Amino acid sequence: MENRNGREKEFEELIDRFASYIRGHIMKYGVHRYGLDPDDIAQEVRIKIWKLVHSEKIITNHSSYIRKIVNSSVIDQIRKFRREEGIYNMLKEKQIAEANLATAHDLAHYSNLEQSLHQAIKGLIESRRQVVILYLFNLSIPEIASYLKWSQDKTRNLLYRGLADLRKKLNNTDNNNEK
């Protein structure tokens, strides 16, 4: 029992002594740009230190070992984020491809309005057409920008211009059908 209390005390002393070091070392990686929470990584570091203390491994240079733990924890979290982001992007691309395929096959069966919309979209310049189609598939501007590897400003500009052009083309089609 005394040995266990000694390990818990050693753990608490290490955490107290190196808390600001751990936090600062995590922050130097700029984990916010990956959408990672530094507190989650700090918790992961605490768990690894807890396991280290309970393994009864003798450490002579705590700061070096803790730096190693922090580095591996941050790198693990960044890798996990990138893996998840890759899976998300792959699923989004699959959904877009399926939607594009379904749209291409089903256009022959749509009403005149839908055919007019298709013709109007086809009449847009390529960059605006890409953005408008993705927008019509309920992708947000940040998602479209990420998919096309464009800035959000460029994507937003092309979307607004593309929608305005589309509106004009559809209004012209309606006016011609009324005559």
Which helices and strands occur, and which strands form pairs?
Blueprint: H1 2-27, H2 38-54, H3 62-106, H4 112-122, H5 126-136, H6 141-148, H7 152-178
Helix pairs in contact: 1-2, 1-3, 2-3, 4-7, 5-7, 6-7
Describe the overall structure.
The structure is a single chain. The protein folds into 2 domains: 82 residues; 69 residues, Arc Repressor Mutant, subunit A (Orthogonal Bundle), CATH 1.10.10. The chain is 81% helix and 0% strand. The protein is built from 7 helices and no strands. The chain is mainly α and 179 residues long. Helix 1 runs antiparallel to helix 2, helix 2 packs across helix 3 and helix 5 crosses helix 7. It is rod-shaped. The N and C termini lie far apart (93 Å). The longest helix is centred in the middle third of the chain and has 45 residues. The model has no long low-confidence stretch (mean pLDDT 82).
Main attributes?
179 residues; mainly alpha; 7 helices; 81% helix; rod-shaped
User: Which residues sit in consecutive blocks of at least 5 with pLDDT less than 50?
Assistant: none
- Summarize the biggest pleated sheet: none
Backbone CA Rg: 27 Å
**Measured distance between first and last alpha carbons:** 93 Å
Please indicate the percent range of residues in DSSP E strands (runs of 2 or more).
under 5%
Give the overall average pLDDT: 82
Number of domains: 2
Order of helices and strands: HHHHHHH
Total number of strands: 0
Helix content: over 70%
Brief overview:
With 179 residues, the protein is an all-alpha fold. The chain folds into two domains: 2-83; 110-178, Winged helix-like DNA-binding domain superfamily/Winged helix DNA-binding domain (Arc Repressor Mutant, subunit A, Orthogonal Bundle), CATH 1.10.10.10.
